[in-house]
Amino acid sequence: MLKLELNDLYPRYFMAIFIFIFSLLLFVFTIGYHLESSIKINNLNITKISNEQRYQHYLYFSRSERLLYREKAREMFQFGYDNYMKYAFPQDELDPINCRGRGPDIERPENYNINDVLGEFSLTLIDSLDTLAVMGNVSEFQQAVKLVIDHVRFDRNSTIQVFEATIRVLGALLSAHLLIIDPLQPFGNLTIEDYDNELLDLAHDLASRLLPAFENTPQGLPYPRVNLMTGLVDGSRNDTSTAGAGSLSLEFSILSRLVGDPVYEQVARRAVNSLWDKRNNVTGLLGSVIDVNSGEWLGQLSGLGAGIDSFFEYLLKNYILFGDEADLRMFDDAYRSVTQYMRRGRVNCMDEEGIHPIFVNVNMHTGQLATTWIDALQASFSAVQVLRGDIDEAICLHALYYSIWRKFGVLPERFNWQIKMPDVLFYPLRPEFIESTYFLYQATKNPFYLHVGRDILDNLNTYTKVECGFATVHDVRDKTLEDRMESFFLSETCKYLFLLFDEDNYLNQHGANHYIFTTEAHIIPLMAKLRRKIWDLNEMTSYVENTNDKQTYTHEHELINVNRDLIKVEKNIISIKKKRANQTSCQSRPISHRHQLPLSANLLYQVDEMVGVITSQP
User: Fold this and answer.
1) Cα separation of 96 and 78, whole Å?
2) Can you quote a single GO CC term (predicted)?
3) pLDDT higher for 479 or 581?
4) I need a surface site. Which of 107, 258, 391, 466 has the fewest CB within 10 A?
5) Residue from 547, 583, 560 nearest 322 by CA
């Protein structure tokens, strides 16, 4: 009987166990499902928090660290400059690995990479003059000026590129001359005893030797190269870049107004107007390479980088320095075309939806995509955008290049945004990205850009410093080096790094509204004298200024505050409207933004993913 009862209990026992296990599994599954959902939600929160954490160190940069990096920038320049003077002067450049000088490649005249720049005129010394001044090294500046006066001559049998000689040598001589004669002497007493305008005379001599490039050209476009002794060389090439032909106007016009000879300004302005007239009548875009004789576009690629970059830059800077509103209208027209046809990505770059903006290379006639790469020279366009007051767009473009820099530790010459790898591998110590970093810090005072500068400086010291200077990176992937230190490293790269960290520098405290940087970073004061011209460029005839105008300046060295006042030129006399040039854009970024990231953490993460700094999560 008992055995029978136990047998009856077994099915009930197993059923109870089955129900218990089933209920337990159902409970675990239910909880697990909700737990999984909770984890997924939490993961989203964690990802968002981690983005904030990933970039939060950019929010603060101490004064002590800023001063430390100012001195590191000074040491960087001094190390390169001292070794140039020790091992290379009076030659043009320093080979920093083998500790020797470099001049033109006489045996291979077709070696344009070297011969376009080096002309046996102590290039690096001349190009470094105003960097010495900006860093406050008065005694070395004065000594360097005396060396230039005593040793530099331009009656050399050297065939050089007109553009490179203009921006590196002519611009440097004009800048140093203006620093010497400046009655304010804001960088220390840079005056030279018994100075008799020798640097201006050298600049005048050099420009005169460049003039044959413009003679008898049917389109008003200069040939790209001249021999400093003989002028044009038989059989020389007719192709020139838009930047090469159209970025001479700033230095040539300064010279004309200093020496009272209109011819230099006339030929340079004629080249700008000729290029402008040849832009496509539908897109408004210019090509990158043109035949100086026929005016035919040989390179129909239109972009913001090599071959065209400084053309846009000088349209705007010509307006700032000389006040001709035609230059501003040309720049604004060009910028509209660039934005319409080259800019890809979301409309508002600060939005978190859509693709981060990028300026691509297009066909000048159709506006259709031409390449999948961008180059290192385009990085300077953020600085141009800052000058025009388009701060948000400048921030977004700069962020793209910062991600590329962080991916490789330096900036490849060309980066293919489609495959997220470089197309051209070298980095010749270029300054363009550093230039934009400096301009954006001045515009926003956001410590983010001090961190960017620190990364740049540390990487240059880590990857490019060698026994006698800083060397070109041959391959950004493995950081192999080439034995060359171009003059712009001391003229631009070191100058912008130093100024980024030197908060107390006159240029940062008082001079930002009174000076402009040439495309080679030579500083030019916004002097009243440079706004006066006593000729009509169209007719090449003299005219008399209206001296009864109440707005005329009392002293030719009087400085003009362009950023404080919107300056308008009427009948070549300066009149001033009391309105801030960057009023709208400046008001859109309040002081409180200095304590925030310039782009949200999610946007910075998005750019890092776009470039390949961070691998996208599945």
Assistant:
1) 14
2) endoplasmic reticulum quality control compartment
3) 479
4) 107
5) 560
Question: Is the pLDDT confidence value at 103 over 90?
Answer: yes
Q: Could you give the 3-state DSSP secondary structure of residue 496?
A: helix
In the annotated binding site for Ca(2+), the residues are 519
Residue 503: half-sphere exposure toward Cβ, Cα within 13 Å: 13
Annotated binding site: 519
559 with 525: CB under 8 angstroms?
yes
Distances (CA, A) of 597 to 242, 359, 574, 601, 609: 37, 23, 40, 7, 18
Q: What is the pLDDT of residue 52?
A: 82
Segment (H or E) for 470: strand 469-470
> Catalytic residue numbers?
164, 309, 413, 432
* CB crowding 482-493: b at 16 or more within 10 Å, else e: bbbbbbbbbbbb
The distance from CA 316 to its chain's CA centroid, rounded to whole angstroms, is 14
pLDDT of residue 91: 98
Domains of the chain: 51-531+595-611 (1.50.10.10)
CA dist 116 → 92, 162, 165, 314 (Å):
12, 8, 8, 21
Q: How far apart are CA 618 and CA 448, in angstroms?
A: 29
What pLDDT does 35 receive? 38
Assess contact for 449 and 396: CB atoms under 8 A: no
SS3 content of the chain, % helix, strand, coil (to 5): 50, 15, 35
Cα–Cα distances (Å) from 90 to 31, 102, 209, in that order, read 80, 9, 21
State in Å, rounded, how far the first CA of the chain is from the last one.
Answer: 66
* Widest Cα–Cα separation across the chain: 136
CB neighbours (10 Å) of residue 139? 9
The predicted pLDDT at position 287 comes to: 98
For 516, the token pair is 């402009």
- What is the DSSP annotation of 499-560? HHH-TTSHHHHTGGGTEEE-TT--EEE-BHHHH---EETTTTEE----TT-TT--S-TT-B-
CB 355 within 8 A of CB 344: yes
C-beta of residue 492 within 8 angstroms of C-beta of residue 521:
yes
| Token representation of residue 18 | 């089955």
Residue 500 in tokens: 């980024």
The DSSP output letter for 420 is: T
For the four alpha carbons of 18, 20, 22 and 28, in that order, the dihedral sign comes to negative
d(CA 375, CA 413): 5
